[in-house]
Amino acid sequence: MVQLADSSCRHKKTPLCYTCCSTTNTRKAQRCKTIILQKANKGKSNREIASLLGKVPQTIHTEIKRGTVRQCLGKGRFKEVYSADYAQQSYENNRKRSVKKSSLTKELKEKILHYHNQKFSPEMMVMAKGVNVGISTIYYWIHHGKLGLSKQDLPYPRKGKALKKQASTNFKPAGQSIEQRSEAINLRLENGHYEIDTVLLTRAKNYCLLVLTDRKSRHQIIRLIPNKSAEVVNQALKLILKQHKILSITADNGTEFNRLFDVFSEEHIYYAHPYASWERGTNENHNRLIRRWLPKGTKKMTPKEVAFIEKWINNYPKKCLDYKSPREDFWMANLNLKFSVRNKSRNRFKFCRSFKYPARRCSWC
């Protein structure tokens, strides 16, 4: 029996058997305690017991001190003895108290769930909405079920990395290739350069979304169209051009974009390589924001709901914009005010150049 307990724990300088035996081999831990009980009752010293178990004497001393209880002998007499059961119970109670109390309060949980229902990611909850907790902590709570959410409830559940398909070397785009795009567009130096794509609601031939994303400000334009035909796309773009200034357009090689030259001049149209969606990464990432509200398989959609999603995305803070929203970045960059803020009150009855009505009614002026 002594020989068996001699190899029961490999941690020589830690409390007896609690590091490995209590979690992976409780039976060995109990045998070690039984040996200590037997040898202590026979009057063996701590050093002798330690040599039998292959431990240091201090470990035996700590274990006996932890499990020492007072035994009543009758007539008011007591004796201090070692109890293996009491030692184990004391260890388990100490382990429960040693765990740090969770910082997840009821109010904090309600706040996180509130922003989650508004489709905010954990990073935006912390950086833009003032949730006073670490980003990784929120992910930890989600993965361990402390918020009543699962991994699939996250905006972008982590998946395995897919292999990227390489573009064909003999591809000839219908318009200009994306390789001919100017550095001003590639470096996002000015507003007005858009990436375009369509988002299908279902596989059936019904309504879909026409999505345009400004490369610099990430300003989003979303329109509901009845189908993906080139004629319908061009009609929607002509209406958009009456409200927004588009300097260039970058599209994929879908058939819905093969007649963009009917709306734009050819020098302002650029086509990405086949199977190279990362060349329009800004547009593709914003399509994921749309999917937060419209998961695949959505059958019904109204223009009012599309307008709400467009407004939500344009007011959603972005890390690349220093946690400002696209609306703030887009409109502030396009406002060319004649007077400085210092002279604003002096000219409050002037007309706003951007909104065409008195500046006193313009929240930006």
From TrEMBL:
Stored Pfam families: HTH_38
GO-annotated biological processes: DNA integration; DNA recombination; transposition
One GO location term (cellular component): cytosol
Presence of the UniProt keyword Cell inner membrane in the record: no
Gene Ontology MF term list: nucleic acid binding; transposase activity
Keywords recorded for this protein, A-Z: DNA recombination
Stored InterPro entries: Integrase_cat-core, IS30-like_HTH, RNaseH-like_sf, RNaseH_sf, Transposase-Integrase, Transposase_IS30-like
Top-level taxon: Bacteria
Keyword Endoplasmic reticulum assigned: no
Region forming the signal peptide: none
Integrase catalytic domain boundaries: 169-334
NCBIfam families: transpos_IS30
PANTHER family, alphabetized: TRANSPOSASE (PTHR10948), TRANSPOSASE INSI FOR INSERTION SEQUENCE ELEMENT IS30A-RELATED (PTHR10948:SF23)
Name by which UniProt lists this protein: IS1239 transposase
